[in-house]
Amino acid sequence: MSVFFDSPISEDLVAPGDAELLLGNIGITDGISATESGEYRQLLAAVHDVAEHILQLPDYVPNADNESYPRENLHRPSEEEQEFGHAWAHKFLIRGNRAGNLLRGKTVCLKDNVAVAGVPQFFGTDAIPAWIPDSDATVVRRALEAGADIVGTTICENFCNSTSSFTSAQGIVHNPHAEGYSAGGSTSGGSAVVCGGLVDIAIGADQGGSIRVPSSFCGCVGLKPTHGLVPYTGISSGDAINDHAGPIARSVTDVALCLDAISGRDDYDDKTLGAPTYGTSQYAHSLQASVAGMKIGILIEGFEHRLVNKDVKLSVMRAARSFEHLGATVQEVSLPSHLEGPAIWTIQQRIAGTLGMMGYAHGRRGLFSTAYEAARQPWTNESFQKLFPSTKNTIINGLSLMQNYPGLYAKTMNLAQQLRDSYERLFEEYDLILMPTTPFVAPPGVDWKRGDSPMSALKPSMGITTNTAIFDVTGHPAMSLPVGFAPSSYDPSVRLPVGMQLVGGLWQEQKILDAAFAWESTNDWKQIGVDNKQEQKFPTKL
């Protein structure tokens, strides 16, 4: 029993009948007798006292090393400083360790849900005030120690709840290859500035495709590592099961270097307990441009989905077949349960995402942002109205699912485990499987305005994560590799990048990196499918 019973209890915190009201919210109307009511009120008041005591204790926040890594010229960019619409959240400079080797001379930007001490964070919304982290995310500290110069935070979509690039309250991000087209999301700004050659590497986060989708749309190499390989400490979470952080770059080598720099066990993040010791990985050093002896599966279900555009299908199939010329065995393979992926992810993400948005997430060890929680809670009519429809929809869906299907989450996670096991059995026979990253090239962006219909806001994003989201639930490593251009179905004179997704077994990042490096070393993707002579605004920056 709590030691707080040894001192007077503040029963004024709890009104008579509060216990009954709480139980009534879950349908229990006859659970407490009149004679028990007073004592349950006393017990409820006691736990409120404990809560108040915890809130009064000093928070535990690791100190940022601002002395070794001072933050220089921190500012919100002016319109003249912006790129590709509004790709930047904040610009600043943190100079990396000059003795660092892996990323020395590289510039890095961070998705605007990655904590940087002293830098306001928007998380793509104006529904809540920006908050200022007190410490750096683990990936920030590791990138600096590896020698990288961090040059800013870049726009992410509204609470990371979209794979389009027009939902951020801070502005639209345009595709660097064609103004007016989506850069993808939710790591929209980072992919745009990397694609445009303004920054070498972006560190993003992926919970349904948020690294791979913008990489596919913009023509970058984007890797979602195995769940737990890269620490998530200091990164705003949607759900611990789906949380993945990873690099976006213009080359496989830079992705491998960044993965070496930021991956490995973090004592603050229990998701990393199975990861190698920090500093021991050798992904970049071990890179070899060879797939000789590899067995690669072309996942039929990843190509035959009704949403997959024929030009995208042909482009990825052509890229896949080139592995045969490099010495790999390439075969078509079927896993019908792959098609259940979107449904499994949707239920899991809606329920867990809502719990996170409401401040009810639990069950993991770690260090969490109390500044973010304080800024976010409680939800009000005013703050809810400022959310983008995709974020509103997540909360509405999640609340309904939890109320009407209380056992659904457990079964969904069982099915997710079944699908994970099915993929793992496939990887006993195949080194990799591949498919289109996105079913179509970047669609036109939408200048959505508050008051527009929710369906008009959500429609451009529908179906984008058909092949990506399930690997966030199963935790398998997956990379988007640019393999050419295909015409936009909205305007065939506009040609946009096509991404091929390479998926490996758990902890098999090296196989993915080697295969991608081999393909990249023998193919110039920028010359494949390019016959568009239309003058576009942004290609001069590429």
UniProtKB/TrEMBL annotation:
This is Amidase signature enzyme. GO terms for molecular function: catalytic activity. Residues 98-513 form the Amidase domain. It comes from Ophiobolus disseminans. It holds the Pfam family Amidase.
